[in-house]
Specification:
The protein is of the alpha/beta class. Helices cover about 40% and strands about 15% of the residues. α3 runs parallel beside α5.
């Protein structure tokens, strides 16, 4: 049978991804990526530490990042993304920028991080009032709040889960419940933190219910990386990747509730 008409595989463009050792959602990242782009993933070395500020610092050390980028150079990706929210906000804005610079030096290619991508996405959407959802403990969550505030945004509400492990096992139902708690007061956007928290299928449903753009860690990471390639992330109808989905009314303020957030 002559199959020469197929012409061989289509040319691929590469996005390198450096993820923490416990990252379990490779498939979710792939769902954001168009057919002509391939992801090339590598992971940071294992360290016996639960999810915490200490772990965030360990998996984002410049030497660790540089080693990860160098493992990808033979594949020659056009951009490299560090797929970890806490690891990229734990040092503040200056720390995030230094991480990008270290990765770029290691591979001579553009670099993005999840937390840097978040700020880029908020700017894209013109969002200055942000509600936050995290699976983290109090201390890690407060570090994210400080990072967002340093960028000039106002945190209007925050809900967290208090988890230190197995974050990838959290069901969509729990993510949606936390989003509703965080968005009780009016906001321009909602951000769901942690690349290890499943969010892909819940984003359009939450946007329809809350009537504000919903961002997630994996979504903004892939959106920003693909933007460097001059292409777009793919996914169900949602504000960040489809301008037609932007705009609309926001939720009214409701009375404050007691410190909540932990289930």
């Amino acid at each position: 049978m002559d199959i020469s008409f197929l012409g061989g595989p289509r040319p691929q463009r590469g996005v390198g991804v450096v993820a923490p050792f416990d990252f379990a959602l490779d498939r979710e990242l792939w769902r954001w990526v168009p057919d002509e782009v391939s992801l090339h993933l590598t992971r940071t070395p294992y360290v016996p530490v639960e999810v915490s500020l200490d772990l965030a610092r360990l998996v984002s050390e410049h030497e660790t990042l540089s080693d990860g980028v160098r493992t990808l150079t033979a594949i020659a990706p056009e951009v490299v993304a560090y797929a970890c929210t806490s690891g990229s906000f734990v040092g503040g804005i200056a720390g995030e920028r230094a991480m990008c610079a270290a990765m770029t030096r290691a591979g001579a290619i553009p670099a993005v991080t999840t937390s840097g991508a978040l700020l880029e996405a908020l700017t894209e959407l013109g969002a200055r009032r942000v509600a936050l959802v995290t699976p983290y403990t109090v201390s890690v969550t407060r570090s994210l709040e400080a990072y967002v505030a340093e960028a000039g945004a106002v945190v209007t509400g925050c809900a967290f889960m208090g988890l230190t492990r197995h974050i990838w096992k959290v069901p969509y139902r729990d993510v949606a419940d936390m989003a509703r708690k965080a968005a009780r007061r009016s906001a321009d956007a909602l951000f769901i933190s942690c690349t290890n928290l499943p969010t892909y299928d819940v984003i359009p449903q939450l946007e329809a219910e809350l009537r504000i753009p919903v961002l997630s860690a994996n979504q903004v990471t892939m959106w920003a990386a693909l933007r460097r390639l001059g292409t777009r992330a793919v996914g169900p109808y949602q504000a960040l990747i489809d301008p037609a989905a932007r705009g609309g009314p926001v939720l009214p303020d409701v009375p404050d509730v007691p410190e909540q957030e932990q289930q």
